[in-house]
Amino acid sequence: MPKRAVDPTDEQRQRQAVVLVGLCKRSGLTMTQVAASIGISTGQLCRYETGHTILTVSYLPRMAETYGVSLSRLSQELGLVTEEDERVRRRRILERNTRSFLGSLDEVEEQIAQLPADEAERLMAVFKELVALSHSRKSTTPV
């Protein structure tokens, strides 16, 4: 009789079980404490930790908070997102924040230009130093 292929759902359940049991042990909390914090019954948590039931995504934020890990870290450990997905997400956030920051710099520059000349000159020098510093950090920051 041919060997049955591993159902991806079974694989996901096994991974979920290992990750959740490990997080619970590292947290030092009891199952009752974890379940109460997440807002589920101890029986439901037990089904998640044994892999009998696939974790409901809506519980992930509370679970991450309870275990003291980031939501992205928990999602990665559970295999819900890959490292590449996470890199792409972080890159997009960085790009969005950079655009916002540069827009704010333009506004600051316009406001400085409205000040008396001597004040504007001093502030503009500081402003340019900050911009140069941000550019030098940007070139050395890993993505």
Topology:
Layout: H1 8-27, H2 31-38, H3 42-50, H4 60-67, H5 71-77, H6 83-113, H7 117-140
What's the total count of β strands? 0
Strand share of the residues?
Answer: under 5%
In terms of per-residue confidence, which ranges show pLDDT below 50 for 5 or more consecutive residues? 1-6
The number of helical elements comes to: 7
Mean pLDDT: 83
CATH topology of the largest domain: 434 Repressor (Amino-terminal Domain)
The radius of gyration over CA amounts to 24 Å
Structure description:
- Helix 2 crosses helix 3.
- 75% of the residues lie in helices and 0% in strands.
- The longest helix is centred in the last third of the chain and has 31 residues.
- With 143 residues, the protein is an all-alpha fold.
- The chain has two domains: 70 residues, lambda repressor-like DNA-binding domains (434 Repressor (Amino-terminal Domain), Orthogonal Bundle), CATH 1.10.260; 58 residues.
- The protein is built from seven helices and no strands.
Notable traits:
143 residues, mainly alpha, 434 Repressor (Amino-terminal Domain), 2 domains, 7 helices, 0% strand, elongated
Summed up:
By secondary structure, this protein is an all-alpha fold. Helices cover 75% and strands 0% of the residues.
